[in-house]
Amino acid sequence: MSLDSLGPREYGAKRRFCFAGIFIFKSRQNCEDAVIGRNMKAEGVSRRTTHLVIGEYTSDA
Question: How far is 29 from 5, CA to CA, in rounded Å?
Fold first, then answer.
């Protein structure tokens, strides 16, 4: 799913992303910056997390 498919930017403030693992095409920081640039939040996992994005490589922890 691309970030552009998530709907209008005015709804962005309600979306909270948590990125986990290692990403192949871009760094985690690039992914977080893309979310923040669309008026959404990138933060650690919590009750308020609406989207959990898991990279290609993760640990067993």
Answer: 20
Distance CA 4, CA 58 (A): 25
Q: What is the pTM of this model?
A: 0.71
Flag whether pLDDT at 8 surpasses 60: no
Cβ neighbourhood burial of 35 (10 Å; 0-12, 13-18, 19+): buried
The Cα-based distances of 11 to 14, 23, 26, 32, 41 in angstroms read: 6, 26, 25, 17, 11
Q: Within the chain, what is the greatest distance between any pair of CA atoms? A: 37
Task: Give CA–CA dist 25/60, Å, rounded.
Answer: 22
